[in-house]
Amino acid sequence: MTSRLLALLLALVPSLAGAAATCSFSSTPGMSFGPYNDSSATPTDSSTSIVVSCFRIGGPADVTVTLQVGPSANSGTIATRQMRSGANPMDYNLYRDAGRSLVWGQTSGTDTGSITITNISNFGSKTGTFVIYGRIPALQNVNAGAYSDSVTLTVSP
């Protein structure tokens, strides 16, 4: 299992995951929500793609890769992640679906995401892509400022 940090202006560090296939993040995504209008009744949405590359030495040609997204560094929770600008909070969350109904978390089989990278040749590599959807709920009374947060990403086979 390998861990990563995803800041909302995301930065990832290299990682490796076990056994016959070694997988690592091959992209450094950033998520920017842009300007937030606290008087708008419409939520502010964004998304980012995370590319994972798997290198195979023996073992099966198909590799299932799972991505876990940990709690907010600011709120300490998954249910309500929180960005901050100084002491000023703003709620947001990260989702596995474009409809933004499935919160992305770290409990295997419950709120993680998986992709299968198929037909990786022996001593070869292939990539797969995860999409993370973000949403800031509408009508939050927040101060102007640059808001940020970080979460830990874990990729495994």
Summarize the SSE layout with pairings.
Blueprint: E1 2-7, E2 21-25, E3 44-56, E4 63-69, E5 81-85, E6 88-95, E7 113-117, E8 125-136, E9 150-156
Antiparallel strand pairs: 1-9, 2-3, 3-8, 4-7, 4-9, 5-6, 6-8
Give a written overview of the molecule.
- The chain is mainly beta.
- It has one domain (2-156): Immunoglobulin-like (Sandwich), CATH 2.60.40.
- Helix content is 0%, strand content 43%.
- It contains no helices and nine strands.
- The strands form two sheets. Strands 2-3-8-6-5 form a five-stranded antiparallel sheet, with no helix packed on it.
- Strand 5 (81-85) and strand 6 (88-95) form a beta hairpin.
- The chain is elongated, with a radius of gyration of 17 Å.
- The termini are close together.
What name does CATH use for the topology?
Immunoglobulin-like
Shape: elongated
CATH class: Mainly Beta
Number of helices: 0
Count of folded domains: 1
Give the N-terminus to C-terminus distance in angstroms. 7 Å
- Within CATH, the superfamily carries the name Fimbrial-type adhesion domain
Which CATH architecture would you pick? Sandwich
Main sheet attributes: strand count, strand direction, barrel closure: 5 strands, antiparallel
Biggest sheet strand order reads 2-3-8-6-5
User: Helix share of residues?
Assistant: under 10%
- SSE run: EEEEEEEEE
Number of separate strands: 9
Rg is 17 Å
Unreliable spans: 1-19
Question: How much strand?
Answer: 35-45%
